[in-house]
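# step 3/5: fold
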Amino acid sequence: MAEVKFPKGSEEWQMFTDFWKLCQKYWIVENSDDYWDSLVDNAGDFMNKYDTYFAKQLAIGFVESQDRKWRDGLAQKYT
């Protein structure tokens, strides 16, 4: 199996770092328009910055995951 270590500062390294920051910032779901507007805006910024299918799927998947948490009532467990 081929393996790669992304060099610090490479575009891939930065993409995963930015995605990690996005997840940390919005991990706890909030019931507010500000939360959802900000999450969607920041996810869109991430998608536009990296403009790859993979980055888009990461961002969409995270937003959908947060939405699912909210719909399943899991948000209340984090607040």
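# step 4/5: annotate
The chain has one domain: 11-78.
# step 5/5: archive (pending)
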